[in-house]
Amino acid sequence: MVNFTILTFMCQYYYISNRMPFFDTIGFFCMFVAFFDVLFYYFLHFCYIFVTLCLWIFYLIFIFFPNMYIFYFIVNTFSNNFLKGRVIMKKFSFLYKFTIISILLTIFLFINAVSYVNAVSSNLSDGVFRLHVIANSNSEEDQLLKYKVRDSLIKYMNEICKDVSSKQEAMSIAKKHIDDFYNIANAVILDNGYDYPVNITFGKYDFPTKKYGDISLPAGVYDALRVEIGTASGQNWWCVMFPPLCFVDVSSGIVPDSSKELLQENLPAEDYNLITDSGNSSELKFKFKLVELLENLKLKIASN
Description:
The protein has helices at about 1-20, 25-85, 85-90, 95-125, 140-160, 165-175, 180-190, 255-265, 270-275, 280-304; strands at about 130-135, 200-205, 210, 215, 220-230, 235-240. It starts with a helix and ends with a helix. It has a four-stranded mixed sheet, with helices on both faces. The chain has a two-stranded antiparallel ribbon with strand order 3-4. The chain has ten helices and six strands. The protein is flat and about 75 Å long. It is of the alpha+beta class.
């Protein structure tokens, strides 16, 4: 793109200077601007590479190498004491040390991975407010009733939170109107000829990985409005009330730009790229799978 800019200015300069000498100064000025445009572009590129390199050097010097030295010191001290007087075992001392160091390094990497996943999960949980509706049963009628209750609650939520720009504000408004949510759900149930009780609560609940158009939210614990219809023994409906993603047509993969903008405003840039198809690099895909794997593992452990 930069080379194209240079070529354009050069052609303009050549054309003007050869046919209209009066504009020779303008052509020279264009060439001057193009030159500094290129210089500035490469300067920024150099700064990016330099900062990235400095961060890697800092990580290696102050984090990676000190930890590796500590690991080696522990292993070397332990193995020397353990192998003292064992002539046969001394032949395998290198293999023994290598095995211990590998185990300790694996533990170190696992701890870093867990720390990263916890940070991402915390950011996602702080950025979205979700909806969980549980049907009375898996019968066709009860499932249809679940969708009707869901639609009414989402419609009301969008009305009272149309000017909201943060999750905390959305939750605060929703909690103030919890009686309205109950009355709306109860009215829909009665209007459809059922007398099921309905229970509505706010809290932190476990959610599986779910895809909403081109946005994927990994499994984890999220703040949510939970609606239990009747015995609440039917299939679940998982959704996002803020930013509003509940009316996304999953088959077409369309998410409203307004919802994406709200999501982007409430999440760090890397976390936003992590859950959207815009972040389709192999690194981000790996990180998403890592978050999904560890969060599912945590949910399984918690449920047992």
